[in-house]
Specification:
Blueprint: H1 13-31, H2 35-64, H3 73-101, E1 109-111, E2 117-122, H4 126-131, E3 136-141, H5 147-153, H6 156-159, E4 167-171, H7 179-190, E5 194-198, H8 206-213, H9 215-219, E6 223-226, H10 230-237, E7 244-248, H11 251-259, H12 264-272, E8 281-284, E9 289-293, H13 300-315, E10 325-331, H14 337-349, H15 361-369, E11 376-378, E12 387-393, H16 400-403, E13 410-416, H17 421-435, E14 441-445, H18 448-452, H19 454-466, E15 471-474, H20 479-483, E16 488-490, E17 503-504, E18 506-508, E19 516-522, H21 540-553, H22 559-567
Parallel strand pairs: 4-5, 4-7, 5-6, 7-8, 9-10, 9-14, 10-13, 12-13, 14-15, 15-19
Antiparallel strand pairs: 1-2, 2-3, 3-19, 8-17, 11-12, 16-18
Length: 569
């Protein structure tokens, strides 16, 4: 099946102006809206997601050339309506708690190894333990945040509104269909702002579907959906009626908006620290995502499980994810290196190769594989791009694989440190922080015996603390942090407009937390059920629609069928 191209005309400038005007009129009313009004709107949007879910998945599968009955279709159920429904459901619960108690509930507080405040965010309900057995999550707050200060800041907009009605332009991402609607949800319900959503041309087909699903928000004058490319995005970003901008995409898009097109004028603005766009800008801009494989007493079976996990970090969505594994960091001289790489290749082979449906993928693939000493290609080519493993990169080299996100089905590998876990962790974290571009997410693969050892366990916790990433996942995929909802999703704090890295600010964050440094997600090294992102999973397309009905409609009767399909995965 050949991928379809979305044929949606850009919204005319006059219609863009009309959309901004409607939002400017609705924004003050939304800023003053009561909690029951907000809850009612969120419920309407959640019902809309349930009503339009199958249409959205059909459109995504057509655009990507995927058979609706193939397990690959499960990815679009999970990365579209499931995550959107999950986040809206959680926001409804948080708003209800704000109405009753002043703030959403937070799990037990704790303290990190270096004395930062931490809090459990997952599992957030008993059902999470059923759907994700053994998985846990926590947040680490910024230095100096106390328990009292955290509680005072939680759900800050509802305790001390900081605006009387603002309009935010959301420049939607084209790769994952949950990104645009969940960015809208975060701005609407966490921050009380009206939203102008410009869809990416890659998934412009979502326009009429979202307009149907979120019709109540549009009717209320707090949401408008428009179409177009870079020209329309730049016009809206500079529009006098737009108060702030949120970008999900590439750092090049961000730089063009904030600093102008490449050339002497941009360089002069950067030198003066005078951006072209003088409005608040938040963003999520991708990452060269590392996977640090910690040496330990690995047995073959556990190593194979984690190798398939790494493969799934690449194959999910055809590798067109900012969370996709990009650089595998193994211990120098590791005796299990070659068996592990072969097991990763076997995991890649379990997933069909995909047509290069995201623009520019074929050119990027060639630029990251041509001229390499060794490239291990897995799977047929033809109209598709084979999975590519590029081993043995020099960690001291200025390699393009370290400095830019390839956004295509290529996984590189390099080795640092030694087979000593302590030495490896120190050098691997230094390498990730200093040599790899981006600050969004990182992965650690750690044997349970290493975690249980008092000395080595402390070293792993130190590594988690030292990694300058907005999320760190241990023995699981960073897609969990993206999709759980209770985890704030975004880059490590501290980036500037002139060195933005993976972006600024957090979205999702359904517990409405402030001053978060990072989220940490942990999973068993051998999960009791095969995770849905594993390439060999055979029933994701059956699980996906049931999970949507479970989240959007509260249908607990879906659980037995979900459990059966998961067991057969």
């Amino acid at each position: 099946m050949t991928p379809a191209t979305a044929a949606t005309d850009p919204t005319a400038p006059g219609r863009l102006d009309e959309a901004v005007d409607r939002l400017r009129e609705g924004a003050p009313r939304w800023a003053r809206a009561s909690l029951p009004e907000r809850i009612a709107l969120a419920r309407s949007m959640l019902a809309g997601v349930a009503r339009t879910a199958e249409r959205a998945v059909r459109a995504a599968c057509q655009a990507k050339g995927t058979d609706l009955d193939h397990p690959l279709a499960g990815e679009d159920w999970l990365m579209g309506p499931f995550i959107t429904a999950r986040i809206l459901r959680q926001l409804i619960g948080s708003l209800e708690h704000v109405a009753r108690r002043g703030e959403p509930p937070l799990g037990p507080l704790g303290e990190t190894q270096d004395g930062r405040l931490s809090a459990r965010i997952f599992p957030a309900r008993p059902l999470d333990r059923v759907l994700f057995p053994g998985v846990s999550g926590e947040v680490h707050f910024e230095e100096g945040v106390t328990a009292a200060a955290e509680r005072e800041a939680r759900a800050r907009f509802f305790k001390a509104p900081d605006h009387g009605g603002r309009v935010v332009l959301i420049l939607g991402a084209g790769n994952v269909n949950a990104i645009a609607p969940t960015d809208v949800a975060a701005k609407l319900f966490n921050e009380g702002k009206a939203c102008l959503l410009k869809l990416n041309p890659v998934n412009a087909y979502l326009g009429p579907i979202l307009e149907d699903a979120f019709a109540a928000a549009i009717a209320r004058g707090v949401l408008a959906v428009v179409q177009g490319g870079a020209e329309e995005g730049a016009y809206l970003a500079g529009h006098a009626g737009i108060d702030e901008v949120h970008v999900t995409g590439s750092d090049r898009t961000h730089e063009a908006l904030v600093w102008g097109p490449p050339g002497p004028e941009r360089a002069a603005r950067l030198a003066r620290g005078a951006p072209l766009l003088e409005k608040p800008v938040t963003s999520e801009l991708g990452n060269v995502t590392p996977v640090l494989v910690v040496p330990g007493p690995w047995d073959d079976a556990t190593l194979r499980v984690q190798a398939e996990s790494v493969a799934g970090m690449l194959t999910t969505n055809g590798a067109f994810n900012c969370t996709a594994a990009r650089v595998l960091v193994t211990p120098r001289g590791w005796r299990r290196r070659e068996p592990f790489l072969r097991a990763v290749e076997a995991g890649l082979a379990a997933s069909p190769t995909r047509p290069p449906w995201y623009p520019g993928a074929s050119d990027r693939y060639r630029s990251f594989t041509d001229g390499r000493t060794e490239v291990r290609r897995v799977g047929p080519a033809g109209e598709a791009l084979p999975w590519a493993l590029v081993p043995g990169l020099d960690p001291e080299a200025r390699d393009p694989a370290f400095g830019s996100e390839c956004f295509c089905p290529v996984l590189s590998e390099t080795s640092v440190g030694s087979e000593d876990p302590l030495a490896f962790l120190e050098e691997a974290v230094d390498f990730a922080n200093a040599r790899l571009w981006g600050t969004l997410c990182a992965h650690l693969v750690v044997h349970p015996a290493t975690l249980a050892d008092p000395t080595l366990g402390r070293a792993v916790e130190r590594a988690i603390r030292r990694l300058r990433y907005g999320s760190v996942s241990v023995n699981c995929y960073a897609g969990y942090a993206f999709g759980f909802g209770t985890a704030p999703w975004g880059a490590y704090p501290g980036s500037t407009l002139s060195d933005v890295q993976s972006g600024r600010g957090f979205v999702h964050n359904t517990l409405m937390l402030e001053r978060v440094e990072k989220a940490v997600i942990r999973a068993p090294s051998r999960p009791p059920l095969k995770p849905v992102y594993f390439p060999s999973h055979r029933t994701v397309q059956r699980i996906g629609p049931r999970l949507v009905r479970l989240e959007a409609l509260g249908r607990l009767r879906e659980l037995p069928a979900i459990a059966l399909a998961a067991a057969r995965g």
